């Protein structure tokens, strides 16, 4: 067994000392390498390196890669098919009945939870297939980003404040999410023990036969293990992708500061009644080059991340609706159905939180366009005759660039559904709440 697999097995059961994991002189490249391990294990399910990807030398039929893919695919297939069989063949001698499950956990409508689990796992498998094919077609935005920034020097490219902010953001978010993840693993482990205990108790009381127990206990353990991978993807892999978005956002903040400095330079020259058009032109070219580069990188990264957001949006909508139905079916509340409700609602809240973090990028882009528009208006009023023709050409060129900034969609999309900005996610939230209330009134 490889060292990586040993470390990850320990990781499933023990809270790692996060604060000791990173040295005092941590760099952004260290976070990129750490996030790459999360993506390989939880999201892509392959063991590869950036050199093979960059050289288009990934081997699908490699023994180690193929073994891991087949293993995870078989487990996923089993976890999806088993609850389907429970729903279809509810009462037979070989499978545990849903009525027995409801008696064990003192919860009504367990079939709704099984349906939700089937849908979530099925959608996550489709998402994995999309991401997996993008890697072997060498079109993965995550991998392309990591290849491009594998030798990134943050001390030269980022300001000290933004660099400290990014490092603190990732360490704190990873620390909190790993604690939540390990608490979830502890809960899943306890659920497995409790389910085993209930099955044995029902067997001793002649309420269950031996064959359903021998099938159900291993399948429940495999299901919990599969859920642990799903939570690892949601908490750790997506947290790293969110860090990359914060990385883009920090560069956009630097461009915003650059536009403000250009405006200050204009005011200083205006007070002195002297203008250095060469300095202004260098500022504009520097801003345009960095902006176009950042826009292209963000747009390219969105090609993969929008797929993740699309499936999370579907899962969150189904989760909140099924949580409403599930709550209306309960006769009394217990620890088990409260835990199920919190889990379903958490998926909806998690997606909303992602939208909140992502929606700031178009806001910064809009602020840049406002400052540059104000600057170009002031600049146009001060054009003087000897250089007027050249200056007007430059002004038209700058004006066209500013219009492009205002009209383009700088940020991320939820698949092909909608562009994410602060107005859109508030609109979605305001639409969802009345629908949920109306839906609850209809079914109650």
Question: What does it look like?
Answer:
This protein starts with a helix and ends with a helix. The protein has one domain (13-443). A two-stranded antiparallel ribbon has the order 1-2. It has helices spanning 3-13, 18-21, 28-44, 50-54, 63-88, 98-105, 110-136, 141-148, 154-157, 160-204, 210-272, 277-329, 335-358, 360-381, 388-407, 422-443, and strands spanning 413-414, 418-419. Helix 5 packs antiparallel against helix 7 (110-136) and helix 10 (160-204) packs antiparallel against helix 11. With 444 residues, it is mainly alpha-helical. A hairpin with a 3-residue loop joins strand 1 and strand 2. The protein is built from 16 helices and two strands. Helix content is 81%, strand content 1%.
Blueprint (SSEs and pairs):
Blueprint: H1 3-13, H2 18-21, H3 28-44, H4 50-54, H5 63-88, H6 98-105, H7 110-136, H8 141-148, H9 154-157, H10 160-204, H11 210-272, H12 277-329, H13 335-358, H14 360-381, H15 388-407, E1 413-414, E2 418-419, H16 422-443
Antiparallel strand pairs: 1-2
Helix pairs in contact: 3-11, 5-7, 5-11, 7-12, 8-12, 10-11, 11-12, 11-14, 12-13, 12-16, 14-15
Summarize it:
The chain has 444 residues and is mainly α. The chain has helices at residues 3-13, 18-21, 28-44, 50-54, 63-88, 98-105, 110-136, 141-148, 154-157, 160-204, 210-272, 277-329, 335-358, 360-381, 388-407, 422-443; strands spanning 413-414, 418-419.
């Amino acid at each position: 067994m490889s060292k990586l697999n040993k470390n990850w097995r320990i990781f499933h059961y023990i809270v790692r000392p996060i604060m000791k994991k990173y040295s005092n002189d941590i760099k952004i490249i260290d976070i990129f390498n750490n996030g790459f391990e999360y993506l390989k294990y939880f999201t892509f399910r392959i063991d590869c390196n950036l050199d093979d990807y960059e050289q288009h030398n990934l081997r699908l039929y490699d023994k180690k890669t193929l073994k891991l893919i087949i293993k995870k695919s078989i487990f996923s297939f089993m976890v999806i098919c088993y609850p389907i069989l429970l729903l279809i063949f509810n009462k037979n001698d070989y499978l545990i009945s849903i009525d027995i499950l409801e008696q064990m956990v003192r919860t009504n409508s367990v079939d709704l939870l099984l349906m939700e689990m089937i849908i979530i796992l099925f959608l996550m498998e489709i998402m994995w297939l999309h991401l997996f094919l993008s890697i072997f077609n060498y079109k993965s935005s995550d991998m392309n980003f990591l290849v491009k920034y594998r030798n990134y020097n943050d001390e030269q490219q980022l300001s000290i404040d933004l660099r400290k902010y990014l490092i603190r953001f990732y360490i704190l978010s990873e620390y909190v999410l790993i604690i939540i993840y390990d608490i979830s693993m502890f809960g899943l482990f306890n659920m497995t023990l409790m389910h085993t205990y209930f099955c044995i108790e029902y067997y001793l009381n002649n309420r269950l036969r031996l064959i359903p127990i021998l099938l159900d206990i291993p399948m429940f353990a495999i299901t919990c293990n599969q859920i642990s991978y799903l939570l690892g993807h949601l908490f750790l892999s997506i947290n790293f992708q969110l860090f990359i978005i914060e990385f883009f956002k920090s560069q956009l903040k630097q461009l915003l500061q650059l536009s403000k400095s250009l405006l200050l330079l204009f005011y200083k020259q205006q007070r002195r009644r002297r203008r250095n058009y060469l300095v202004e032109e260098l500022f504009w070219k520097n801003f345009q080059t960095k902006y176009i580069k950042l826009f292209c990188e963000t747009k390219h990264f969105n090609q993969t991340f929008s797929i993740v957001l699309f499936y999370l949006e579907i899962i969150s909508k189904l989760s909140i609706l099924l949580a409403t139905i599930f709550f209306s079916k309960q006769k009394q509340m217990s620890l088990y159905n409260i835990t199920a409700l919190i889990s379903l609602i958490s998926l909806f809240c998690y997606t909303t939180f992602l939208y909140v973090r992502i929606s700031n990028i178009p806001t910064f882009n809009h602020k840049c366009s406002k400052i540059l528009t104000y600057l170009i208006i002031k600049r146009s009023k001060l054009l003087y005759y000897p250089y007027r023709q050249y200056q007007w050409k430059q002004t038209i060129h700058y004006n066209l660039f500013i219009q492009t900034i205002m009209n383009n969609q700088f940020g991320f999309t939820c698949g092909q559904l909608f562009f994410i900005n602060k107005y859109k996610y508030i609109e979605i939230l305001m639409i969802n709440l009345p629908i949920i209330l109306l839906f609850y009134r209809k079914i109650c």
